[in-house]
Amino acid sequence: MLSVDDILAASKVPFSNAEFNKSIAARGVPSSDLICLPPSAGWFGPNEEGKRVVKVLCYSKESTPNFYMRPIEGLVMTVDLDTLEVLKFSDTGREIPIPKSTDTDYRYTAQTKEPQMEPLNPISIEQPKGPSFRVEDGHIVKWANWVFHLKADHRAGLVISRVMVRDSENGELRDVMYKGFASEFFVPYMDLDESWYFKSYMDAGEYGLGMSALPLVPLNDCPRHSYYMDGIFATPDGNPFVQPNMICLFERYAGDISWRHSEGLLTDFQIREARPKVTLVARMAASVGNYDYIFDWEFQTDGLINVKVGLSGMLMVKGSPYHQAPNQDAMSGPLISENLIGVVHDHFVTFHLDMDIDGANNSFVNVNLVKERSLPGESPRKSYLKAKRKIAKTEKDAQIKLKLYDPSEFHMINPSKRSRLGNPTGYKIVPGGTAASLLDHDDPPQLRSAFTNNQIWVTPYNRSEQWAGGLLTYQSRGDDTLAVWSERDHSIENKDIVLWYTLGFHHIPCQEDFPVMPTVTSGFELKPVNFFESNPILRAAPAFETDLPVCRSSASS
């Protein structure tokens, strides 16, 4: 993994390189306006063996802190991280102007115009009795019917473990998940130029999501009454350091409904029953270079866990000679501002979900919806759907590519634990963010990231198999990935197994992404299936006016 020391050392290399200084002078850029960053180099063949290399790209920070929008296009150096020697120098873009700094500064204090909208009044959730959750021993979270362990990790960012939910009938704590976290983050860009082809990042294994996390911003990243947790990590020389306020924990109420029903139109019953949905959120945000990633693990009182990933920050842009594109189809992405191309790219987040439904030994079930034809004269209906269950015997049975017209539900069950009706207790994964990688399997970035070849995998638990891209990701060749492990085709029926899910985004940039992107969010759910004997929040209390403080706005007083 790249360390801060690696990044700082490589960033200084260009300034002592004669070819680089000559090119910068020819472009008319003062060296004092430059900032250089070393993105990872990927792996593209045996000529890169035996060296720990990085690419170095540079930007102009003149008149803006948003230097990402001012690339020195076509200028790239390959640097040996051990010797700090420039192994290769490429300078192909001198005819491309450096984009202007106009309107690139995203800071609130830099805005000179008012937003063209009606102002929003301040809003906040009041908790007159304080939050309902508590944190014991610094990491054990207890809230409503949930208990789990929460910690910061230098590579995964946020790790949820020992997740238990209380049974709605007898109050006993029951196992749901041993450990869950973002195992790898694959971001390939779709440009073949010399200064772009290698941009296919694996953010967790190459940089570290936890190492890239900066303190969360109170009231903006996290609401009032949030609890903050630090990360304790090691520097390259082994000394501990604190990453402050890296995780926040808070209760969310956004006017959503847990359940409801009304009667009165067609019967004598006059019923109005509804319950507010209050959830508990554990959040972490990583700023990996230009991109910001927001990770939420949201716990509901009905036993559902909602895992969400938000994308914000700055695009990785390419300098262009064009103010208006004559033919955008010939470019690697659309123009998002003058002289700036937003290069098409993907984001794939692969999650390690070590489910322990009522214990360690579980099975994976594909519940396939199959269309059946009705028999002649059987019904006015011609067709209907039937659920057919298939228990995966081995790993290859659980290699799943999602298909819109061949739908399934995917259950993790405990075959040894049954409900009163005889159904195995379980949870299902409800997919979201279902974009799939379209790269050829022999393309070097895809070889390294073959864990995105399927959306779902199931493997036997192995303590050495936690990172989907392999333990040692930097300049890896794809010989120690989830895809390699799964080809061993071990038995997974009634075993201690791990569910892997890949959340995917295709990103075709647009002008609204400039100069900073509005957050785009997707995710997936882990939802109980026959885990409880009935609706676990049937007896939850509604909200009453007397529960809440009396607040008056100044306009109404």
Q: What attributes does this structure have?
A:
5 helices, oxidoreductase, four-stranded antiparallel β-sheet, 19-stranded antiparallel β-sheet, Amine oxidase, Beta-galactosidase, Chain A, domain 5, primary methylamine oxidase activity, 6% helix, Nuclear Transport Factor 2, Chain: A, Cu_amine_oxidase_N3, EC 1.4.3.-, 557 residues
What is this entry, summarized?
The chain is mainly β and 557 residues long. The chain has two domains: 4-101, Nuclear Transport Factor 2, Chain: A; 134-533, Beta-galactosidase, Chain A, domain 5 (Distorted Sandwich).
Describe the overall structure:
The modification 2',4',5'-topaquinone is found at residue 291. Belongs to the copper/topaquinone oxidase family. Keywords: Copper, Disulfide bond, Metal-binding, Oxidoreductase, TPQ. The structure is a single chain. By secondary structure, the chain is mostly beta strands. It folds into two domains: 4-101, Roll (Nuclear Transport Factor 2, Chain: A), CATH 3.10.450.40; 134-533, Copper amine oxidase, catalytic domain (Beta-galactosidase, Chain A, domain 5). Helix content is 6%, strand content 40%. The chain contains five helices and 28 strands. It has a 19-stranded antiparallel β-sheet that branches. A four-stranded antiparallel β-sheet has the order 1-2-3-4, covered by helices on one side. The longest helix is centred in the first third of the chain and has 10 residues, at 18-27. The protein is globular. It starts with a helix and ends in a 28-residue tail after the last strand.
